[in-house]
Amino acid sequence: MLKNFITYGLLGWCLEIVFTSITSLRNRDARLMGQTSLWMFFIYGSAAFFFPLFEFFSEIPIFLRGVIYTFCIFFVEFAAGSALKLAGVCPWDYSNAKYNLRGVIRADFAPLWFGAGLFFEYVYRHFL
Fold first, then answer.
1. Mean pLDDT throughout 35-44?
2. Distance (Å, whole) CA 32 – CA 95
3. Do 113 and 120 form a contact (C-beta atoms < 8 A)?
4. At 60, is the secondary structure helix, strand, or coil?
5. Given CA atoms 109, 110, 113, 114 in this order, what sign does their dihedral have?
6. Are 91 and 40 in contact (CB under 8 A)?
7. Judging by beta carbons within 10 Å of its beta carbon (0-12, 13-18, 19+), is residue 1 exposed, middle or buried?
8. Is residue 101 within 8 Å of 107, Cβ to Cβ?
9. What's the count of helices (H) and strands (E) in the chain, helices before strands?
10. pTM exceeding the 0.85 threshold for the entire prediction
11. 58 pLDDT higher than 90
12. Three-class SS of residue 104?
């Protein structure tokens, strides 16, 4: 479990750095500077606790699995973001985004979380 927690924590960090690097292009920043937070390691690492879901949902069609993973990720993001916001240490703030919920989740990120959930499942099935 610890190995999987570390794997998902590091994988999530890497994905977030790549994502924030690419989105820096919106600001015409060709340096492609990415960023993340130490808190995110623990949030991404928590995907290790969802391993039973990967097995339980193995016979469900891939689209439905992606939808389920998206809702699971939204739940974790909302819970973690709310707790970190309460403590005054939340590393993200989506308050200015059009489709945000309390500034801690963005509905327009659903396709990204859909892909991330299926990618984490793929990593679990083929590498862990």
1. 96
2. 24
3. no
4. coil
5. negative
6. yes
7. exposed
8. yes
9. 5, 2
10. yes
11. no
12. coil
